[in-house]
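Each record in this resource describes a single protein on a pair of labelled lines. An example record follows, reproduced without changes.
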Amino acid sequence: MTFLDEMKTAVTPRAALLVIGTLVLQLLFIASYVGALHNPRPKDVPFGVVAPAQAGPRLVGELKGLPGGPLDPRTVADAADARQKILNRDLDGALIVRPGGSKDTLLVASGGGTVLSSSLDRIITGVEKTQRRSVRTVDVAPASAQDFDGLSAFYLVVGWCVGGYLCASILAISAGSRAANGRRAALRLITMALYSVLGGLGGAVIVGPVLGALPGSVLALWGLGALVVFGVGAITLALQALTGIVGIGLAVLLVVVAGNPSAGGAFPLPMLPPFWHAIGPWLPPGAGTWTARSITYFRGNSVTGPLLVLSGWAVVGTVITLSMSTLRRRPAVAPEPRETPRAPRA
C-alpha cells in the first residue's frame, strides 16, 4: 500500500474537511478575541451633564468634541434625575457641576464594569483640570468587593453557555444529530430543559450564597440561568439537526468565538470596536451578562430587551429542532417480490 493510500485510510475526506473547519474556527477565535479586546477605548458612552442653563450647552459641546469621541453627552435636569438614569442603565455616568464652586461631582456605576467607570473618571478629571476645577467621584451602583473588576456576572453566564452547548452536543452525539421523530426531539428538549433548571440553580447558588461574589437575587439569577442554558442548548440542537456534527462547531462559533468577546464582560460595550459592539447584545453571552449585572447591581432595571433576545434563541432553537425531526426521511421499504407464474407443463 502506498503512502497516499495509507493517508486516505488514516484521514478520510470527511475527517479532512472537519480538520480544516477546526483550523478555521481556531483562527476565527484568535481574530475575534484579539480584535475585540486588544485596544479597548470608550466610544460614544452615554453621559449626562447637570449644569446651569448658561453653562450646560457649552460643556456638552466641549465633551462631545473630545478627541476620539469617547462620550455621547446630553443635558440632564438635575442630580436626582442623573442618578436614576444611571440606575436605569440609560446613562453610564454623569457630571454634576456645582454653581459657585470649583469642585464638581462625577457619578459612575462600577457594577456595569469597573474599567468603564475608571475610564470616565480619567476623562472627566482631565477635562476638569483644563477648567481649573476638581471632581469628586461617587459610585451609585458599586461592584461587590468580592466581584473583582465586575467580571463575576460574565463568568457566570459563560459557564451557563458552556453547559448549554455541551449538554446539547452530548444528546446529539449519543443518539444521532437529528432526532428520529417528533417525540424523540421533544424528549431531547425536555431533557435540555431539566438540565437548564439544575444548571441555572447551581450557578446562582455558587456565585451567591457559596462564594458571595454577586449580591443579587438568587431566584432571579436562577431564572436567568435556566433561560441562558436552555437557549444555548436549543439552538445547538437545532444547528446539529440542520448540519450534523458540524453544528457543534457552529454553536462554538456563535457562542464562544463571536459571543464571548462581544458580551461586554472584560470591557463593557462602549469600549468595544463597532462590530463587536453591534453584535454583542443580540447573542446569548451579551444578553445574559447585561441581565445578570442588572439583576445584581441595578435593581433589575433594563432587562426586557435582553430577556426577549434570550427567549428568541430558545424559541427558534425549539422550533427548528422539532421541525427537522418531522422532515427526517423514512427509509424506503422495498416492494415484496411477486411470484412469477410458472408455465404449464406440456
